[in-house]
UniProtKB/TrEMBL annotation:
The chain crosses the membrane at residues 7-25, 45-66, 73-92, 98-119, 131-152, 164-183, 204-225, 237-260, 272-298, 304-327, 339-362, 368-385. InterPro entries: MFS, MFS_trans_sf. This is MFS transporter. Pfam families: MFS_1. The keyword DNA-binding does not apply. Keywords: Membrane, Transmembrane, Transmembrane helix. GO terms for molecular function: transmembrane transporter activity.
Length: 397
């Protein structure tokens, strides 16, 4: 296999091992509630802390924390997930667990750091490579859910919970060691830039950054919203969640490949950007259809139709591979590593906002689905606006 693609595959496995932390703790809910003597409402704080950590990771991306040696940065990011995974089962206090979950959210910084690597290895193939790597988020979610199920799930003893957490923590470092042996290092620039090249002062950064915001709003709330508004059996609900994870993983790869095929037609900066906008717009349009099917299914309590709606709606993740290849396509080489984190910070503000807003506003299926459909339309609108803007690489040149 071409060494570049073997790098993509091992990146994907590393991402999957890290994102196994995403849902694992909540799958042990019964055991956690009993061990710490907390309420279900308090249990929810750990997931809130995790998604806030996802947002803060991009905020730190503008600092020197994830600059310099690429391999060192990846090892640091993996450690933010692995060390808390070792410590969580031994934490005597619940609020200590919540704090550790916040740091585990930093694992998402892998996505921005790998964008720098993919930009060095590929041109037209960037969306496909990125789509494969992003699918690791959802393969990791499936792995974490199944590991928790193997350990006994909600009815597990605390010793079984501890065993599952230690296995997953060790696996992260095993994967990191394998990854380290096969991947070449490079420097992520640390130097300061003039105000003219400050990514935060470029209007394009803000407009395009928010094009991915609606997708993340759906990705981070659809599963929990569905769980609170359907009347299916526990097994059917579990199947819906698993279908959503698999769907998003597969759509990430499929739409990444489509982005690659479109990028081949014109590998100029503007040509690559047109391919990005096309893939994201198509993903939002099909998501719109999937949401309507899901809305009808939930309203009619039709489980089969709900599975179809969930499978189609998962294409919302098809926006990801295109979005994460924007920085190297649209920004000068000197600042695109910083631009990756800036775009990630703006878009991932959805992680910090969406769950709480949905909790407050959504009192019925209709309200929730109207919000989701509105988000897809907002995404398309922002893409149309950004497609008419000058790219930073065009503006600064």
């Amino acid at each position: 296999m071409d060494k570049r693609w073997s790098t993509v595959l091992i990146n994907t496995l590393l991402v999957a091992s890290g994102f196994g932390t995403m849902h694992m703790l909540e799958k042990f809910k019964g055991a956690v509630l009993m061990h710490y003597g907390i309420t279900e409402a308090m249990m929810g704080y750990q997931q809130t802390a995790y998604v806030v950590g996802l947002f803060v990771a991009f905020l730190l991306g503008g600092t020197s924390l994830f600059k310099g040696s690429f391999k060192r940065s990846v090892a640091l990011i993996v450690s933010f997930a692995a060390i808390p995974q070792f410590l969580i089962p031994f934490m005597p206090n619940w609020w200590g667990v919540v704090a550790l979950r916040f740091f585990q959210g930093f694992i998402v910084a892998l996505i921005a750091v790998f964008s720098n690597q993919i930009a060095r290895l590929f041109v037209a193939e960037r969306p496909f490579a990125k789509g494969i790597i992003l699918s690791g988020i959802f393969w990791g979610g499936i792995y974490g859910i199944n590991l928790a199920k193997w350990a006994g799930g909600s009815d597990a003893s605390w010793s079984s919970v501890t065993q599952a957490f230690l296995i997953s923590a060790v696996l992260m470092y095993v994967m990191l060691a394998i990854w380290w042996l096969f991947v070449e290092d490079f420097e992520i620039p640390k130097e300061e830039h003039s105000s003219k090249a400050n990514v935060w002062k470029i209007p394009f950064t803000w407009v395009f950054g928010f094009t991915f915001f609606p997708a993340l709003w759906v990705v981070f709330t659809l599963g929990s919203f569905t769980l609170h508004n359907v009347h299916f059996s526990d097994d059917q609900v579990a199947n819906l969640v698993m279908t959503l994870e698999v769907s998003m993983a597969l759509w990430s790869i499929i739409m990444g490949y489509l982005g690659y095929r479109l990028s081949l037609k014109n590998t100029s900066n503007r040509g690559l950007f047109k391919a990005i906008v096309s893939v994201m717009t198509l993903s939002y349009a099909v998501t719109f259809v999937g949401l309507f099917i899901l809305w009808r299914a939930i309203s009619a309590n039709d489980y089969t139709l709900a599975l179809l709606g969930i499978a189609i709606t998962g294409i919302v993740q098809g926006t990801g591979p295109a979005f994460w290849t924007t920085a190297p396509a649209a920004y000068p080489k000197e600042i695109y590593p910083e631009a990756s984190f800036a775009l990630g910070l703006i878009s991932n503000s959805a992680n910090a906002v969406a769950p709480n807003v949905m909790f407050v506003l959504v009192k019925s299926v209709t309200t929730g689905m109207v919000i989701y459909i509105g988000m897809t339309l907002l995404g398309i609108l922002l893409l149309l606006v950004s497609s008419r803007m000058k790219l930073p690489i065009e503006e600064l040149s």
